[in-house]
Design goal:
By secondary structure, the protein is of the alpha/beta class. The protein folds into two domains: about 1-225, Alpha-Beta Complex (Spore Coat Polysaccharide Biosynthesis Protein SpsA, Chain A); about 245-330, no CATH class. It has helices at about 35-45, 55-65, 85-95, 95-100, 115-125, 200-210, 230-245, 305-310; strands at about 1-5, 25-30, 30, 50-55, 75-80, 105, 110, 130-135, 145-150, 150-155, 170-180, 215-220, 225, 250, 255, 260-265, 265-270, 275, 280, 285, 290, 295-300, 300-305, 320-325, 325-330. A hairpin with a 2-residue loop joins strand 9 (about 145-150) and strand 10 (about 150-155). The longest helix has 15 residues, at about 230-245. It is globular, with a radius of gyration of 21 Å.
């Protein structure tokens, strides 16, 4: 079976970390983010993976190549979008690659160990057009509610009300199993491109109204979504603690921390240097950042100041200031 990673977004909420590279190419657990997601798919039995690209596509191709560097039998393929097509349009744009069998689509900003074989069993048992992988949302975070009855998706609601009683609402994880018949619901316009951009509103709601079965698979396992700098940092630290007996610093092999420096709960990218006497806590240090003796960075994202020169901050990007040779942006809680 084949799979698709959705990775064409701009990553504006991850700015300034995306100032010099596309979101799929930012380091996550010492590999490019999309490489991490591709490894997850390959471990689950999906070795042929297509990635959609838009913003800075060359940075993604350079970072990922054909996928062979990641192991687990990953084989990466690419489709480019001259303009952002949305989820439905992205799937349609990869139609030639995907229209062979059932396939999986996953958001490219996830870290998870959800068992996809169990989701496939649900999909086939239900004979569904699509199966959405869901999870409970007990904290009632701002994820749209998915309404489910007898194992089938019946509709989609707004954000859950905070502090509500009763069972936790269900939310969509960004992972879905699709039957090839889904292409019947993604018609093309005169230009040969999909005229639908959103699978939920433009595909699944009409399909449900026509009697199609959209199955719900409520999954177990960990799941993190890395759409913001805070979530990116917290997820790196959580997984590092999980995998390395309580360690809390994710450090590229080319980064260096001198004796007498203090670094905790942080992520250090390529060629970072933290000098003796410097302190770094709960921060992300971008490629080539130097933290001089006596400097203290806490709860910040830091990139080289030269990268920020002349760059316009996107609306959802973190504001910051130049401090010496670095551009420093506080990370909100």
């Amino acid at each position: 079976m084949r799979a698709m990673i959705l990775a064409a977004g701009y990553g504006t909420r991850l700015w300034p970390l995306t100032i010099d590279r596309a979101k799929p190419a930012i380091p996550f657990m010492n590999r490019p983010l999309v490489g991490y997601v591709a490894e997850y798919l390959a471990r689950q039995g999906f070795h042929d993976v297509v990635v959609n690209l838009h913003h800075r596509p060359e940075s993604v191709r350079e970072a990922l190549g054909d996928g062979s560097k990641f192991g687990f039998g990953v084989r990466l393929h690419y489709v480019e979008e001259p303009e952002i097509l949305g989820t439905g349009g992205a799937i349609d744009n990869a139609r030639a690659f995907l229209d062979t069998d059932d396939f999986v689509v996953i958001n490219g900003k996830l870290a998870t160990d959800i068992d996809l074989s169990a989701a496939l069993e649900t999909h086939r048992r239900a004979r569904a057009l699509a199966t959405l992988v869901l999870r409970p949302n007990p904290a009632r975070e701002r994820y749209s509610v998915v309404n489910v009855s007898d194992g089938l998706v019946k509709g989609f609601g707004g954000y859950p009300k905070p502090g509500g009683g009763g069972d936790a609402p269900l939310m969509f994880t960004g992972i879905q199993v699709l039957d090839r018949r889904v292409f019947d619901y993604i018609p093309r316009g005169a230009g040969g491109k999909s005229i639908f951009s959103h699978t939920v509103t433009d595909v699944y709601v009409p399909a449900i109204e026509r009697g199609e079965r959209i199955a719900a698979h409520v999954a177990e396992g960990y799941w993190y979504e890395l759409s913001t700098v805070r979530r990116y940092l917290d997820t790196n630290v959580a997984l590092e603690r999980m995998s390395k007996e309580g360690l809390d610093v994710v450090k590229d092999e080319t980064a260096s921390v001198e004796a007498g420096a203090g670094v905790t709960e942080s992520v250090l990218w390529e060629d970072v240097r933290v000098e003796a006497g410097a302190r770094v806590r709960r921060s992300v240090l971008g490629a080539g950042v130097r933290v001089p003796r006596g400097e203290v960075f806490e709860n910040v994202a830091v990139v080289r100041a030269e990268l920020a020169e002349g760059e316009e901050r996107p609306d959802k990007g973190l504001p910051g200031e130049v401090r010496g040779s670095n551009f420093v942006a506080p990370i909100p809680e």
